């Protein structure tokens, strides 16, 4: 079979602003461009019609998104301690408030496309109807096994 090779970015769909379920598929500690420690995460966003896209978030000390993610992902005790480990976020899931950042000039003679951004992390009441009218009773901050190309289990 002949095919056209594609990158992961080729498959990313721009989601409209709104609240989406997510799973954190990558989480690592690094240093920001301004020299501050941060946790860089990649989220797989899932729409109510089971389409997915990826979004990145960078969490730094003192930022409200770091607190909200910890509180909604079952990591309150870790947040209230004096150290947060990036590995604790891996495969956590919940609901994110997603926005769209408009593309523009990258300052290097190129252009970057519109992209989804994470505006906040929201509590999951576990009572909202999901795909095909099913609901979930999974505890907040529950951990999924890696999806390995499988359909989303909720």
Question: Would you spell out the secondary-structure blueprint of this structure?
Answer:
Blueprint (H helix, E strand, L loop, with lengths): L7 H4 L6 E14 L5 E10 L5 E9 L3 H9 L3 H5 L12 E9 L2 E2 L5 E2 L2 E8 L32
Antiparallel strand pairs: 1-2, 1-4, 2-3, 4-7, 5-6
Structure overview:
A hairpin with a 5-residue loop joins strand 1 (18-31) and strand 2. Residues 127-150 have low confidence and may be disordered. The strands form two sheets. The protein has a five-stranded antiparallel beta sheet with strand order 3-2-1-4-7. A two-stranded antiparallel sheet has the order 5-6. By secondary structure, the chain is mainly beta. It has one domain: OB fold (Dihydrolipoamide Acetyltransferase, E2P) (Beta Barrel). The N and C termini lie far apart (34 Å). Helices cover 12% and strands 35% of the residues.
Task: Label this structure with key terms.
12% helix, globular, mainly beta, two-stranded antiparallel ribbon, OB fold (Dihydrolipoamide Acetyltransferase, E2P), five-stranded antiparallel β-sheet, 154 residues
Quick summary of this structure?
The protein is mainly beta and 154 residues long. 12% of the residues lie in helices and 35% in strands.
Mean pLDDT: 82
Number of strands: 7
Indicate how many domains the architecture comprises: 1
Strand content: 35-45%
Give the H and E element order. Answer: HEEEHHEEEE
Would you identify the CATH architecture? Beta Barrel
Tally the helices: what do you get? 3
Which structural class do you get from the secondary structure elements?
Answer: mainly beta
